[in-house]
Amino acid sequence: MLKDVESRTDIDRLMNVFYERALGDSVIGYIFTDVAKLDLEHHLPIIGDFWESLLFGTPTYQKHGRNPMLVHKELHAKSPLTPQHFERWLELFTATIDDLFAGENADHLKVRAGAIAARMLDFLGIASATPVEIYGADRGHR
User: Fold this and answer.
1) How many CB atoms lie within 10 A of CB 96?
2) Selection from 37, 41, 46, 38 nearest residue 11 by Cα
3) In angstroms, what CA-CA distances link 115 with 13, 17, 35, 37, 87?
4) pLDDT for 139 beyond 70
5) pTM of the full structure
6) What is the pLDDT of residues 5-32, one digit of tens each?
7) Which of 44, 100, 125, 132 is the least buried, fewest Cβ under 10 Å from its Cβ?
8) Which fold has domain 8-139?
């Protein structure tokens, strides 16, 4: 039986597994490796802070002074992002959560990831012809 996401250690585990999958993915991998030229050693603590702040209400992400929307706008300017990129990101993220965790916090992360993907699409002006599937939308979660 899988446990819920209960700590920063759990978030770090989720991020490590997710990024391992995402960097090798045929649809979105190049965005991380060729466009963003992601340095995982630098990025993983920052993205861990983001999800920790989001899930547990800690102020850890604030110290970075970053706006995720603007970071993705810069990426979009370098290489256009598409609805399919966000759909694939969400698919991989949700599958990684499902493979590692189960529970209220895990479900909350999936709902928030769907909302973030939809908000990014809107912010970047690349709304999908079909709405990004948001986890839990059919179950009354949002």
Assistant:
1) 21
2) 46
3) 22, 21, 24, 25, 12
4) no
5) 0.87
6) 999 999 999 999 999 999 999 999 999 9
7) 125
8) Globin-like (1.10.490)
Mean pLDDT of the chain: 90
- Give the integer Cα–Cα distance in Å for 30 and 27: 8
Q: How confident is the model at residue 128 (pLDDT cuts 50, 70, 90)?
A: low
The predicted-structure confidence for 28-49, as pLDDT tens digits, reads as follows: 999 999 999 999 999 999 999 9
For the residues of the chain, what is the DSSP string, one character each?
A: -PPP--SHHHHHHHHHHHHHHHHT-TTTHHIIIIIS---HHHHHHHHHHHHHHHHH--SGGGGG---HHHHHHHHHHHS---HHHHHHHHHHHHHHHHHH--SHHHHHHHHHHHHHHHHHHHHHT---SS----TTGGGT--
Q: According to the model, what pLDDT value does residue 141 have? A: 39
Domain ranges of the chain: 8-139
Nearest to 69 by CA among 27, 119, 9, 10: 119
Using alpha carbons, select from 100, 119, 99, 123 the residue that is nearest to residue 111: 119
